[in-house]
Amino acid sequence: MTRRAPLLPLLVSAAVAAGATGCGDAGRSSGSASPDRPPFSGEAALELVEVQVAFGPRVPGTPGHAAQLGWMLAILDTLAPEVVADTFIHRTTSDRDLTLVNVRARFRPDESRRLVLLAHWDTRPTADQEDDPAARALPIPGANDGGSGVAVLLHLARLFAAQPPPVGVDILLVDGEDYGPGADDMFLGARRYAETVSRDDRPTYGVLLDMVGDADPLFPMEGYSAGYALPLNKRVWSVAERLGYGEWFPSRVVDPVGDDHVPLLEAGIPTIDIIDLDYGPDNTYWHTHQDTPEHVRASTLRMVGEVLAEFVYSGG
Ligand SMILES: [Zn+2]
């Protein structure tokens, strides 16, 4: 994600509600649930973060990127009735051709009412928030920024394989979100998807996960999400409230953030971004070498996974 240069004019000014901002233990037990919803294991999701980081940085064109792609496809091939890998080339602003791959796992592919759950699987090529120039030039580990969203979605795929969801669900792992350095070379996989998704495959709405594993999480409503997809945003946040997670999903609206939901919104697909904009003390782990599995919590992954699972199994 990028904090600069809003990509869309905001139609709706942020309606601020007094939300709780405390941050305690996000791992306490959840409240009432849909009877069909299988349990979501935060520990299993955290293992999926650790595996990804062990591949090395997942920067397009590197061995870690190739290893992660093969791993994701192998997992999803065992779980989903239909898996699509869409390979495409993006020429960067510095005239480099990147080979990128979006991976889409389709559950209940014949259902016309569909939900897309997406996260980026690539990681930032440079640690641009480091002070030291030598450290800044190296790629980040991407445990939270990249790894966490993929982990939650891959573990959700296990749930959907065990208990088919009541609506069609596409899990979309997009490439090239964080390449950069500027927005012209970011959100590449999401743009590709928004431009090419067929009429038959087009989802009714979408939910994006980004940076969903911090030890001290907070998910206020992001500005574009609330501005362009407020009914969906409220539905998901009310699920969080029902599960006892309202403290971490306050209904106040924060500044818009450029992220993978923007191309989908521009294509007319209502999509919200579940994103935590404060990673570590004063956000010091974001785009630095501190973005490691030790700074990701199973309890946070579980909270986000449960909210999404409950949203899906209660009918979307
Ligand atoms: Zn990032």
Please provide a written account of the structure.
By secondary structure, the chain is of the alpha/beta class. The chain has a 6-stranded mixed sheet, sandwiched between helices. It has helices at 42-54, 63-79, 133-136, 143-162, 188-196, 223-228, 230-242, 261-266, 298-313, and strands spanning 82-91, 97-107, 114-120, 168-174, 205-210, 221-222, 253-254, 271-275. The model is unreliable at 4-30 (pLDDT under 50). The chain has one domain (42-313): Aminopeptidase (3-Layer(aba) Sandwich), CATH 3.40.630.10. The structure holds zinc ion. Zinc ion binds at residues 1, 124, 145, 178, 287.
Comma- or semicolon-separated keywords:
single chain; 316 residues; alpha/beta; Aminopeptidase; 6-stranded mixed beta sheet; two-stranded parallel sheet; 9 helices; 33% helix; binds zinc ion
CATH topology heading: Aminopeptidase
Q: Which word captures the global form?
A: globular
Q: Helix count?
A: 9
Report low-confidence residues grouped into runs of 5 or more.
4-30
User: Main sheet?
Assistant: 6 strands, mixed
CATH architecture: 3-Layer(aba) Sandwich
Strand-residue proportion: 15-25%
> What's the CATH C level?
Alpha Beta
Which ligands are bound?
zinc ion
Number of domains: 1
> How far is the first residue's CA from the last residue's CA?
25 Å
Query: Could you give me the name of the CATH homologous superfamily?
Result: Zn peptidases
What helical percentage do the residues reach? 25-40%
Strand order of the largest sheet: 1-2-4-3-5-8
List SSEs in N-to-C order: HHEEEHHEHEEHHEHEH
Rg over CA atoms, rounded to whole Å, is 18 Å
Overall number of strands: 8
